[in-house]
Amino acid sequence: MDTAWMKFDLRRQQVLGRDACLGLLGGPTLGRIALSVRALPTILPVPYHFDGQHILVGTSHDSTVLRAAAGSIVAFETGRFDARPEDWWTVSVTGPARLTEEPAHIAALGRSPAAQWLSEPFAVLAVEPTVVSGCRLAPPGP
Q: How far apart are CA 73 and CA 67, in angstroms?
């Protein structure tokens, strides 16, 4: 999907293409998922792993994330703001989320660095990155 219409309300930004955004998803282990809980928008932190095709979100089997996200369209965001300002970036994804019991998904999340945030047994949501956008942020200056 073409995301050229998406503009960030920030000065000094470099808009990233889909491939660059997906490449950045492989770094962090924590992100934020936006979903609807009782008809209200909610954003929650989640551990995740990007397997090259899906964002694999780990959660408990009785969690708000699983109840609200499975079978819904969700938004997901991650980024890096803890480094030098010239290394700052953000990536946002929107797409369908589904509960997955595929052994490859469970194994990939279980052996990823995100596993440190999970308690056994855990559930896995697979988010398909349908709409992808992101940018690198230049440091503030003149």
A: 13
In order of their start, the domains of the chain are 17-134 (2.30.110.10)
3-state helix, strand, coil in the chain (%, to 5): 20, 40, 35
> Rounded CA gap, 116 and 105, in Å?
16
Backbone angles phi and psi of 48, in degrees to 5: -150, 165
Classified as helix, coil or strand, 85 is helix
Per DSSP, which regions of 1-142 are E strands? 13-16, 30-37, 40-50, 55-59, 73-80, 89-100, 123-127, 131-137
> pLDDT, tens digit, for every residue of 97-119?
999 999 999 999 999 999 888 88
